[in-house]
Specification:
Layout: H1 29-40, H2 42-49, E1 51-54, E2 58-61, H3 66-77, E3 80-85, H4 93-105, E4 110-114, H5 118-134, E5 143-146, E6 150-153, E7 158-162, E8 176-180, H6 187-203, E9 208-213, H7 221-230, E10 237-241, H8 251-260, H9 263-269
Parallel strand pairs: 3-9, 3-10, 4-7, 4-8, 8-9
Antiparallel strand pairs: 1-2, 5-6, 6-7
Length: 275
């Protein structure tokens, strides 16, 4: 097969890390094989191509813990999942990595990023954009739009940072919805959101809804959906990530956390208890 004919000097609005829409390319045999491997093995793709900032090491590859691999496999296998997770366990990173793989290796994926604040939704999008720019130029899809609130690729795929209200979903046919920290969203916004979205979830079996949150009180939509999922009263598959699922967290670590905060705080933030 011919060598790649991508013009590496081509860029989206002067950004050399982004391929502009309409860029023609031929791929080498090695690139075709690598593309197929990444398509078939999301874990391989994530650990090889996504890099995160480490306080001590700087930018380094994302190495998934066993619990995070199980979380990712859950997202791949099930269209509707709900996860309660300890703080700093990767509950936001893993769904984002799944979304990055989806927009790169599937066509016309429309993704909505929702959270308790629009600023946090924008933060999630910003993280996804940073990862996209780490992807090899030849593997990228061409960029059509790239701004603070959404990105659009040449195959029609989009990722949009949204507010958790009706205006954020009306008229948009999402392929994937990621609801982050749902336990901290207001009752009014979550009730109206699910009231509008529920009919869609009934007839569109391909719609993926990913809910991941740390725990809060019992008087919110996240607790209701979690309880119903565990009692098989909805279609969500429940999953938990506890503090001890993360390597390096032991009894001594737990005691230090409680000492610096409180028993109640630890139970809520790391043992995933609804207080």
């Amino acid at each position: 097969m011919k060598q790649s004919t991508i013009l590496e000097s081509s860029s989206y609005l002067g950004n050399p890390l982004l391929k502009p829409a309409g860029t023609e390319s031929l791929f080498t045999k090695d690139q075709v094989e690598e593309y197929i491997k990444c398509l078939q093995d999301p874990i391989y793709f994530i650990e090889k191509y996504i890099k995160i900032s480490n306080v001590d090491k700087g930018l380094c590859p994302l190495e998934l813990y066993p619990i995070q691999k199980s979380f990712l496999q859950l997202l791949i296998a099930n269209p509707k999942t709900i996860t309660r997770a300890s703080r700093q366990s990767g509950k936001g990173i893993i769904p984002l990595a799944f979304i990055l793989h989806s927009i790169l290796f599937k066509n016309c994926q429309v993704v909505g990023l929702f959270s308790f604040r629009k600023e946090w939704s924008c933060h999630l999008l910003s993280l996804l954009k940073n990862w996209y720019q780490q992807i090899p130029y030849w593997m990228q899809k061409g960029v059509v739009n790239w701004n603070k609130n959404y990105i659009e690729l040449e195959d029609g795929s989009k990722v949009i940072s949204c507010s958790l209200n009706i205006s954020g979903v009306i008229g948009t046919a999402f392929s994937i919805i990621f609801l982050d920290e749902l336990a901290f969203c207001s009752k009014e916004s979550t009730n109206s959101f699910f009231e509008y979205m529920y009919p869609r979830t009934v007839w569109d079996k391909n719609l993926r809804i990913i809910i991941a949150s740390s725990t809060n009180k019992k008087d919110n939509m996240f607790y209701k959906l979690w309880k119903d999922a565990n009692e098989c009263r909805n279609e969500f598959i429940p999953f938990s990530i506890f503090w001890y699922d993360i390597p390096g967290r032991n009894q001594k670590w737990k005691e230090e956390c409680i000492k610096n905060t409180s028993q109640e705080n630890f139970e809520r933030e790391f043992e995933c208890k609804f207080i």
